[in-house]
Amino acid sequence: MLGFLKLMLSLRINNVKITAMKSIAIIYGSSTEHTKNAAEKIAAELADYTPSLSDIYDGDEAPFHSNEVLILGVSTWGVQDLQDDWNDFYPKLEKMDLSGKTVALFGMGDASIYPSSFVDGMGILYEIVVAKGATVIGQVSREGYDFEYSRALVDGQFVGLPLDDDTEPELTDERIAAWVEILKPWLK
Ligand SMILES: Cc1cc2nc3c(=O)[nH]c(=O)nc-3n(C[C@H](O)[C@H](O)[C@H](O)COP(=O)(O)O)c2cc1C
After folding, report:
1. Is residue 10 a part of any domain in this protein?
2. Which CATH number do you get for residue 128?
């Protein structure tokens, strides 16, 4: 009898845990796999939340509709330019209704060679998801980043997590780990 009660209790605890967690999709666009690698690290950090992981190259809209939290990763290729696969997907984003969705953004760039357009792509994604009604979480202080201008700066802070695997790859893991902790309160 005691064993049965313990089993029921554990099922209820498990059940509560599962239903209390939000569904999360990590969606990235990546040309030379830096953003992809970061997306995989974020997925590993959030393993307890069992996020889905997909490449925007596939053009699949389903993860946007079937998840409450969207973690979107994009690199920047040229001044004020999105990564190619996000660029191709952009018309679909323009037609989406993202109201009620929670979005967190991470952007891969190179502050050393492109200090005047550092992680601009993240700023472009921010603008479209906000226009489509999403609530953006996970803003990051600009402190510790050496650059001149970024479209991803709003009200003096980054709209998401900037990463720089070209110049500061040694900081990527700790930046991701710290950022994921910022996100966690919104994932329950
Ligand atoms: C031609 C070219 C243009 C780039 N333009 C920018 C830029 O404007 N801003 C920036 O932050 N990074 C820029 N980068 C750096 C890339 O965003 C960086 O290499 C990134 O890690 C690529 O990520 P991915 O492999 O996931 O696409 C550029 C890189 C190249 C090769």
Report:
1. no
2. 3.40.50.360
Q: What is the pLDDT of residues 14-36, one digit of tens each?
A: 554 445 789 999 999 999 999 99
Distance 175 CA to ligand 1 centre (A): 18
Q: Is 90 in contact with 128 (CB distance < 8 Å)?
A: yes
Among 136, 120, 37, 131, smallest CA distance to 83 is for: 120
- Range(s) of the domain holding residue 65: 23-187
Nearest residue (by CA) to ligand 1, atom 29, is 77
> Which residue from 32, 75, 116 has its CB within 8 A of the most atoms of ligand 1, so it is best to mutate?
75
pTM value is 0.91
Please name the residue that has the structure tokens 């690698």: 37
| φ, ψ at 125 (rounded to 5°) | -65, -40
Length of the chain, please? 188
- For 81-114, write each residue's pLDDT tens digit: 889 999 999 999 999 999 999 999 999 999 999 9
Residue 41: inside a domain: yes
**Coil/strand/helix, residue 53:** strand
Token couple for 130: 């906000």
Q: Please, what is the end-to-end C-alpha distance for the chain in angstroms? A: 33
| Number of the ligand 1 atom closest to the C-alpha atom of 73 | 26
Look at residue 144 and tell me if it is in a domain: yes
8 belongs to a structural domain: no
* 37 within ligand 1 shell (Cβ under 6 A): no
State the total domains in the chain: 1
